[in-house]
Design a protein that fits this description.
This protein is of the alpha/beta class. About 50% of the residues lie in helices and about 5% in strands. It contains twelve helices and four strands, in the order H-E-H-E-E-H-H-H-H-E-H-H-H-H-H-H. It has a four-stranded parallel β-sheet, sandwiched between helices. Helix 2 links the parallel strand 1 and strand 2. Helix 2 crosses helix 9, helix 3 packs across helix 5 and helix 8 crosses helix 9.
């Protein structure tokens, strides 16, 4: 991406965030907010399609009309019409690893050389970019020290946003719920933030239109590490976590897994690997 366009996107995002944080109730925006690699682009496209409003992702200009804004912003009390999307952090770590390695292979961003050098130093010269099982422990530790795509760790982002008993105006939905029964949960969150009943056929049409098979030509679970949509499944962490990975993640975010209901206790660590 040309540096000028990237700079314009950053400015646009900052203006949208400034306006939303101070005048969120007065602007006709719908927000899909997530921690990176939770499925926000997929959800944002479906919400946009059902509501028939734009989804100006990576816009180079500030948004001034009714739209679906997708972001990784922190909690801001003046935001309204928010859908907060969350996902099992273990799957996020695996998805982030392969996403980062894909970017290094493609060399498609301005800091490519610096990022590659960083991981060469962290994981070793000539490290295998497809070997998540070996490299996830150090990768996760590094990601928690140096978050990218946002200024917060997965744990911090969840702690800021996930308070369903205190914030009934926010529509909460998990990636796993969307994978299990997409139409039901998509309809639920759209009706929550719009205050209007949504026809079932519109919801199903959006689900079909933005299904993984329609978007990539692959069925859910068929992996392509060179594509932005790599695999499209829940629970893939089980294929890549070793006992060491489990212990590292549990140290970093084990309590958050329990808060979100992905685990009841820490026994999953002993069962891993």
């Amino acid at each position: 991406m040309p540096p000028v366009r990237q700079l314009m996107q950053k400015i646009s995002n900052r203006v949208n965030r400034y306006v939303s944080s101070r005048h969120g109730e007065g602007f006709p925006f719908y927000y899909v907010i997530e921690y990176p690699k939770s499925g926000g682009t997929w959800l944002g496209r479906m919400v946009s399609d059902v509501l028939q409003v734009p989804f100006p992702q990576k816009s180079v200009f500030p948004v001034g009309c009714s739209s679906v804004l997708h972001s990784h912003w922190p909690y801001m009390p003046k935001l309204r019409r928010v859908v907060y999307l969350y996902r099992d952090g273990r799957d996020i770590m695996v998805s982030a690893f392969f996403h980062r390695m894909r970017n290094i292979k493609l060399g498609d961003y301005p800091q490519h050389k610096q990022v590659k050098a960083h991981y060469e130093k962290l994981l070793g010269p000539g490290f295998d970019m497809d070997d998540a099982r070996t490299h996830l422990p150090k990768f996760m530790d590094d990601l928690y020290k140096n978050p990218w795509g946002t200024n917060w760790t997965w744990t911090q982002h969840i702690d800021m946003w996930y308070r369903p008993n205190e914030r009934p105006d926010i529509a909460y939905v998990s990636y796993e719920q969307l994978r299990t029964d997409c139409a039901q949960h998509l309809k639920r969150v759209i009706e929550h933030v719009s205050g209007k009943e949504v026809e079932d056929w519109k919801v199903q049409s959006a689900v079909d239109k933005f299904s993984m098979e329609r978007q990539t030509g692959r069925k859910s679970g068929e992996e392509n590490r060179g594509h932005f949509i790599r695999k499209g499944v829940a629970g893939d962490w089980k294929n890549h976590f070793t006992r060491e990975s489990a212990e590292v993640f549990n140290r970093l975010a084990g309590k958050t897994l329990i808060t979100l209901g992905y685990e009841q206790d820490e026994s999953w660590v002993q069962a891993c690997g």
